[in-house]
Amino acid sequence: MRHLFAGLAAVLVLGLIIWALLPRPVGVELADVALRTIEVVVEEEGEARIREVFTVSATVAGKLQRIILHAGDPVVAEETVVALIGSAAPALLDARARAVAEATVEAAAAAVDLASAQVAQAEATLVFMTAEADRARALLERLAVPQRTYDNAILQQLTARAAADSAHANLAVREQELESARAVLGMGDANGTPDCCIELISPVSGQVLRVLSENEQVVPSGAPILEVGDPGNLDVTVKLLSRDAVRVQEGARAEITGWGGPSIAAVVERVEPSALTQVSALGIDEQRVEVILALRGDPAERRLLGHGFRVIARIALWREEEVLSVPVGALFRDGSDWATYVVHDGRARFQTISLGERNEAFAQVLDGLQPGDQVILHPSDLVTDGVAVAP
Question: How far is CA 338 from the centre of its chain?
């Protein structure tokens, strides 16, 4: 009996050893090859912007009054006064220029005195010649003097009157020259109020976007003061790699996300015909093409989306329904070809395939697979051609 139990034990141990050495099926995750809708998209960061941003600039050089408007304040086209520009104070004179200006003032004052004296002389001559003309007229009436004597008296009176008018005009000129010289020196009316002001009017209805020069200051002609625009007229600009941009068609569907609100439907409005060179974060020169997206849907849903906000744009490059597809997790490279493991009768079979379009989840199968086939997702090193597998 003892020998019988010993024999059974030996047989049992041998069976366990043989069972342990037998190959076991490799556990795998399976997926189906089926007809699906595939959409290929390109995703890139973009920027929301107002289509027409107007920069209000100084039309003349002068002193800009303090801007009372702030970013977000509403403006009305051709009505809202956004800025006032008055005359600026004259430039300060150095010692040499001040000495020249003072001498010019003194010379102008002397010229005024001389002109005043000439006016007095001309007026005295006019008074004398008028009296002579009156006497000549009285004598002529009594036939005491000839007509020629009277005519000469009248001529001298008219000449004296013209000389007086000329002297008055000369005095006015000299007085204006004195005022001009005093203005250069800064001796004008210190309490005088300069003419104010030139008004800058908003060219569009909307809101103030940025105030570039808020404080009172002297500005040159053409200096930017503030920006205005209509926040309801938004679009999105995205800079795509040129290899992606060539596949984008005008009118293609797009989706705007990542701005803090609900996703917004959009369409491709325009693809710029030229590219720009940009340096990536890795220091690589990239050719980027600007793509303009027009927003669709209810504007109330995007009312919080503002000018310059960062967004994520997903643009459809290709879409087709009922496409034979395989999960990308089942694909791997075999040299220059794509391949996968197909499960037949519980065993993995190596299969090279031909692919078309693909996105991050599925790839279009052109050749090598049939609908209903099962493929192995993310095959490990234990999976080889012909090995037994189990889900």
Answer: 46
